[in-house]
Design brief:
12 helices; about 30% helix
C-alpha cells in the first residue's frame, strides 16, 4: 500500500484549490499535529502558538519534534536497505542532531563547522558525508582528523589536494559528484544537475570519467561510489529515474574499463515540499519504490552488482516541521497595494528574496469576520526586496499587534539567516506533547557587539 509523509499529498493525486484562510483545510501544509481552536488559535505539538508568542516573544521559530521524527521514520520505511542521510544545511542544531541520529539517519555536512558541531555532540563520524564545491584546506584536514565516513570529490583539484593530506598508511573513502545532465528544481538557483552551474564533474564532457581514473590511481584514496544531486524542490519522480539510469551507465562503464564494481551510489536529495495549500509535494513512498526498482533493473541490464543506495533529504525532513511567528507592526496602503509589516523579515527568512519563494501566512489568536483581502507581508528591514509573502490572503481588519504564523519554516530560514540591521536572529523552540523548550536562544545585541572588538 502506498503511503505518504504526514502533510505531504501524493504527487499523483490531483490537488484541491487553496482553502479559504479561515478554513481548517488550510492547515494542510502545517505539521500533522496542528489543531485549530474556536478562538482562532492554532496549537502545534500540543502547544498554543499564542501562548508561545507571549512566552518567547516574536519573531520565534517553533520546531515540531514529533513531525521531524515522523518524517525520518517515513524515509526509513520508504527506503529499506538504504542509507538515509539528513542534509544538515537545511537546519542544524544540537537537538536536531540527536533526533535524526536516534531515528537511524546519517548526516551530510558542507563545512568543517557543521562537521565539528556534529561530532563534538556525539554524532558518529563514520555516518557523515562531507560535501562542498570548494572545500578549504581546513575542511579537508578536519574531515580527516575526525574520521568522516565519506568525502565527495567535487573537482579535479581536490584529488591531489586531499590525497596529499591523507596520512601515510591510511585511505580515505571518497565519492565522485557527477553532473548527469538532468535539469530539475523549483528555481534556476537550485538546479544543480546540468553543466551550467558550479557543482560536480560533467558526465557529458568526460571530466567525471577522467577524475574517476585519476582517483583509482591514488593509493590514499578509496573510491567507493558515485554521487549526484540534480536540484531542489523537485516534485516528480521522473528526473530522479533519468539521473539514476545515467549513473548506472557510468557504473557499468567503470566496471568494464577498470574492472571495478563500485559498491555505493548516492542519489542526493532535493525532495520538494508544499509551501502553500494546493501545491504538490514529492511522494516519498512512490520515489522509494520506483527508484529501488529502477536501480535493480538497470543494474541487471548492465550486468553489474546493485550498489548500496544513499539519499540525502533535508528540507523534506525539517521544512514542514517548522512554524515562524511574527507580530504585525504596521499596516499601510500605498496606491493599490496593502502592506502588512512584521517584526522579522529577510534576516530570518531570505528565501523569498533569493528564490521568489511563496508562503501562506495565517492570522492566529482571534477570529475575524472581515472579508479577506490580498496583501504583501513585508519585513522590517531597509530593503524593498524584504518581502516574506506576496499576494497573501489576510483578513481585511488586520492591524498592528496581530500575530501571523508562517508554516513550512523549518528549512533554509535560520540556516541562512543574518543579523542585518543589527536585528538578532530569532530563537528556536521545540514543541512536543504539550511542552515547549528553547533549543537555540535569541541572538542579542550583546552577541553582535561581542564580535566587534576593534575601535
Amino acid at each position: 500500500m502506498t503511503t505518504t509523509l504526514p502533510g505531504l499529498p501524493s504527487a499523483a493525486t490531483p490537488q484541491a484549490a487553496p482553502a479559504p484562510a479561515g478554513n481548517a483545510a488550510s492547515l494542510s501544509v502545517w505539521p500533522a499535529s496542528a489543531r485549530l481552536s474556536a478562538r482562532g488559535d492554532v496549537a502545534v505539538g500540543g502547544v498554543s502558538l499564542v501562548e508561545a508568542a507571549e512566552r518567547f516573544g516574536t519573531p520565534v521559530y517553533l520546531l515540531d519534534e514529533g513531525e521531524v521524527r515522523d518524517r525520518c521514520r517515513a524515509y526509513v520505511r520508504a527506503f529499506p536497505d538504504t542509507d538515509v542521510v539528513y542534509a544538515a544545511k537545511a537546519f542544524l542544531c544540537r537537538a536536531l542532531l540527536h533526533w535524526v541520529r536516534e531515528e537511524g539517519l546519517g548526516l551530510d555536512v558542507c563545512s568543517a563547522g557543521e562537521l565539528e558541531l556534529a561530532v563534538t555532540n556525539g554524532f558518529p563520524p563514520e555516518r557523515i558525508v562531507m560535501h562542498g564545491n570548494a572545500k578549504s584546506p581546513d575542511d579537508l584536514s578536519t574531515a580527516l582528523r575526525l574520521g568522516v565516513g565519506r568525502i565527495v570529490i567535487d573537482s579535479a583539484w581536490e584529488i591531489a589536494r586531499l590525497s596529499a593530506l591523507v596520512p601515510d598508511g591510511a585511505r580515505q573513502k571518497v565519492l565522485v559528484r557527477v553532473v548527469p545532465g538532468v535539469s530539475a528544481g523549483g528555481h534556476a538557483a537550485i538546479r544543480t544537475g546540468t553543466d551550467d552551474q558550479k557543482f560536480g564533474l560533467s558526465l557529458t564532457d568526460g571530466s567525471a570519467q577522467h577524475a574517476i581514473a585519476r582517483i583509482l590511481g591514488q593509493p590514499r584514496l578509496d573510491l567507493v561510489g558515485l554521487h549526484c544531486h540534480i536540484g531542489s524542490q523537485i516534485s516528480t519522480v521522473k528526473p530522479y529515474l533519468t539521473a539514476l539510469r545515467r549513473m548506472v551507465g557510468l557504473l557499468a562503464q567503470i566496471s568494464h574499463q577498470h574492472g571495478v564494481a563500485l559498491p555505493e551510489l548516492d542519489m542526493g536529495g532535493g525532495h520538494g515540499v508544499a509551501y502553500r495549500p494546493g501545491e504538490t509535494s514529492l511522494d516519498i513512498a512512490a520515489l522509494g519504490a520506483r527508484i529501488r526498482r529502477e536501480l535493480a533493473s538497470s543494474c541487471a541490464a548492465a550486468g553489474i552488482p546493485v550498489p548500496r543506495l544513499t539519499i540525502e533529504p533535508g528540507r523534506a525532513v525539517t521544512g514542514p516541521a517548522g512554524v515562524a511567528l511574527y507580530r504585525v507592526l504596521t499596516v499601510k496602503r500605498t496606491g493599490d497595494s496593502l502592506f502588512v509589516a512584521v517584526d522579522g523579515g529577510m534576516s530570518d527568512n531570505p528565501r523569498p528574496a533569493l528564490y521568489g519563494s511563496r508562503y501562506a501566512p495565517r492570522l492566529i489568536g482571534r477570529r475575524s469576520t472581515a472579508e479577506p483581502c490580498t496583501a504583501t507581508v513585508v519585513g522590517r528591514h531597509c530593503e524593498a526586496g524584504d518581502v516574506l509573502a506576496a499576494d497573501a490572503a489576510v483578513p481585511g481588519d488586520i492591524h498592528p499587534g496581530d500575530l501571523l504564523a508562517v508554516p513550512v519554516a523549518g528549512a533554509y530560514h535560520l540556516s541562512m539567516a543574518s543579523s542585518y540591521n543589527a536585528v538578532g536572529r530569532p530563537p528556536v523552540v521545540a514543541v512536543h506533547e504539550g511542552r515547549a523548550r528553547i533549543l537555540v536562544r535569541r541572538e542579542s545585541l550583546a552577541d553582535i557587539n561581542g564580535r566587534d572588538i576593534g575601535l
